[in-house]
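Run folding on both entries below.
>entry_1
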Amino acid sequence: MRARTWLAAIITVIVAALPTAAGEAVADDAPLVETGPVFNDPTGDTTAQNAILTKLGRLVQGATAGSEIRMSIYLLNSQWLVGELVKAADRGVSVQVIGDSDSVSTAYATLQNALGTDTTADSWVLTCPANSACLSQDPNPQDAYTTVNHNKFFLFSETTGSASGGTAVRDVVVQSSSNLTAWDLNTAWNDAMVVTGNTTLYQAYADYFDDLRAAGSGEIPQVADYPVETQAGVAKLYLFPRATSDPILNILNTVDDPVGDNAVCHGNSAGFGTSDGRTVIRVAMHQITRVAVAKKLWELDNAGCYVDVVYRLLDESASGAVVAQLAAPTAYGGIALHKLDEDSDGTSTHSKYLLIEGTYKGVPDQKIVFTGSHTYTVRALQGNDEALLKYADATVHDAYRLNFWHQRAAADVVQ
């Protein structure tokens, strides 16, 4: 049995009419395009489940003639969204799609047949090489794991966010955790962060898209290390693969920077972190296999941070090193762990976000979100095409925090 629904609270971007099942019809009365997150709720009705897909569909519907839509996606199974993309191309929008070779579906084939595969044309579909990412080089070609284009981002150079028109907004970035499949809508918890009017961020994604296209077409070689990071105001983009450093570990290490004479994790004002001013770290993560990340989370909890984790999978083998590390006792009682998997809970977390509420880089009272396609796995670090988006904004953080609480409650419900 699934957990109860908190429909009104969890959906930050309100939509009026949403597609059915895999998304088949959308009303035209969309809100203006604004910066902020969108969350689906797999425990809810069709409207709640399809919130992310519908938002994307409306952005496609509102794309103006002569504008560009660029998207890089792991799995694309929505025939409805494909139909909207084809309509956009027909009305003079340049539609460019990079998909992984795993995205074998009727919908994907329809899009490929409609747009063609000539990447010198205005519109096209490019599929990464079989069993391979586009840009990322396989670090261990002899093992059983293949690399993938695991991205889930969407770029709109100009869109009204509605088929019925309205004020056009430029440089719209959507960074999501969600593939476009029925499972992602109906069973999994996902998020999509929409950022509008940030030209620096938009261009950083566009440059990355160009590199994905060039590598996927064989024009440039694949790379083992792509340590590209772009600061764009309150946003920051981190790209993968990484061969020599771990951005997640680097982010968590900055929480160690104390504030003045305070101990690590301490020194926040009332209303930030715990009631006694300790930093709170919340993680909603589909899978964690990197022991170094688990160890750092443990160290922060042991130092006084409150670490709260909702997860679907831990480790990748029977060794259980991540489980052992995260479950080990700390001076503050240990990390709070909540498994959210459809086999026991009816739904699964497919989110990939980290929330920091408290100290960061020696500054107290911070509220920061890190979200994207990037799981805390070795493959996501070293072998996949991935993107991670930082957004430092209290309103955005608090929306994600509410979503985290809802996922945690779904994980903890007694079946």
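>entry_2
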Amino acid sequence: MSARYEIQKRLKTGVGPILGLLVICYFSYHLVEGDRGLFAYLKLQQDIQSANAELMITEQERSKLEKRVSLLRPENLDLDMLEERARDVLGLAHPDELVIYTK
């Protein structure tokens, strides 16, 4: 009976720390692996960087197009640009010209 009493006594004193350790392990795991954990945060940061790079490329393309469109406005019409666009849209060329399509 003495051994049984000793086992019960040790179990009662050891249950609290064991449960505390299990709770700490549970939250530590989800701190790293969870939906809002460290790995998810790092992946989100990588996605943000790739989106910013794509945004910069898109903004550069937009500025190029805006520059070309500004050359076609009536206030500052560039005749060479107008002729280039007309030939491109209509598919016309002089008889002595050679047309090479790149797209």
